[in-house]
Integral membrane protein
Amino acid sequence: MHEASQNDQVRHEVTLNERGPFVAPRCSCGWYGPARRSRPLARDEAAAHTATARSA
Ligand SMILES: [Zn+2]
């Protein structure tokens, strides 16, 4: 039995949704980023989100 007292149990698993030439990052926490034409850029923004969300 685990105690759920902290909110850091929220997981941030990012997936990239490809739509034609665009790639939009989406996180399991409900966050999603704007569609980008650049996959590295989309991953960058997703990484920035997870870094911010984890340290908040
Ligand atoms: Zn997230």
Summary: DSSP finds one helix and two strands in the chain.
